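Re: that chain you flagged

S.,

Sorry for the slow reply, it's been a week of failed gels. I finally had a moment to sit down with the sequence you sent. For the record, here it is as I used it:
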Amino acid sequence: MYFETKLSSAESTSKVVSSNTKPVANLGEDQILSCYVSAESQPNRLGEVSVSWEKTDLGTVYRYENRAPALDGQASAFKGRAQVFPDAVAIGNASLLLRSVRSSDEGEYTCTIRSSVAHGTVSIQLRTAVFSVPTLKFSNSILTSEASSWFPKPDVTWLNQTGNELNANTSFTERSPGIYSLLSSLQSAKVSETYSCRIENSLVVAVTEATISGTVLVETFFTFSVASTQLVSFYLNIITSVLCMFYVV
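Prediction finished late last night. Pasting the structure tokens below so you have them in one place:
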């Protein structure tokens, strides 16, 4: 899914686009805010390119002009934490790297790209959450799912391979204000069966599928909400690992 805004120059068919205008960042981790020029003409014909990133309520996040950072007036909250990539800017990609995302980074950003050909702007709404990949273990017919950090507090659902919901015991521990770890246990899990553990809040869904055998193949899929009632169906990450299990036949 791509989002775009037309450039104001009537002479160019180029557009400023973002691959995701409502990203969800994991607090404490780095986040890319996507912004680039999509042109029917060759990117190297853009000429001199300048970039401006602004955040509503804070002002300048990052500016790039004359092939160099132009950071006079940069909001103090972003000093040393934001950058674009010069080689990418030269061909019209002004995506911003925001390091060590904070809850205060949440909000609306605008990316403006200007060149000798034309210019345009796209808006991006950054949301923040905390989410972690769950670890699954199997022992004595009990399949457990443990995740270290989630915010907002999630719900946990287990399904069997035919999609039926299963009863499980789930406990939460508040590790810091609003941030929870969880431990969920599914009783009477069977060898050679496949189970799904779904951890979900208003922003993030993690679905972990586990097939139990002498080893268990685990895949975790993340999806992210555009709004609280709608999900964007794409993968952030697919993490596959083989866990050695011991059980009594």
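What I noticed first: The chain has two domains: 3-129, 135-244.

Talk soon,
D.
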